[in-house]
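Worked problem 6 (solution included).
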Amino acid sequence: MIEVEIEAEDWTDAIEDVEAVVERAAVAALGSQTGAVVVLLTDDETVRDLNDRFRGKDKPTNVLSFPAAEMPGVVGAAPLGDIVLAYGVCAREAGEQSKTLASHLTHLVVHGVLHLLGRDHEDDAEAEEMEGEERAILASLGVEDPYMLPNDC
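Solution. The predicted structure is:
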């Protein structure tokens, strides 16, 4: 189950049917896994506050993932966690990287869901593995490789 909450209307102004974009990306990233994910589309200030409170970094970032605590005995789709995305940061990055905002959002939702599933990129080997998984999922959605530099074309 994927729940999309929109706090910043910029998201709906910028991306047609943004909820469908998020749901499609999250479902693809989940693959055969089951679980409930909440995706909050918000503004930079909200993400800055969360990033400061939970990570000690007083600045906005593109995406934050908050894995749910273990819940033994839960019937149905157990909560996997929450993903929070900052409109301003994401829109700026998409422009800087010459991507559509919808493609960048798709990538960041996939990235966030993979974090909720326990993937990480703390060292080079983990990063390479996670990026490979992201590439495969995004390719299945028709989204170009987000890690390919413009000079690699």
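Discussion: The chain is about 50% helix and 15% strand.
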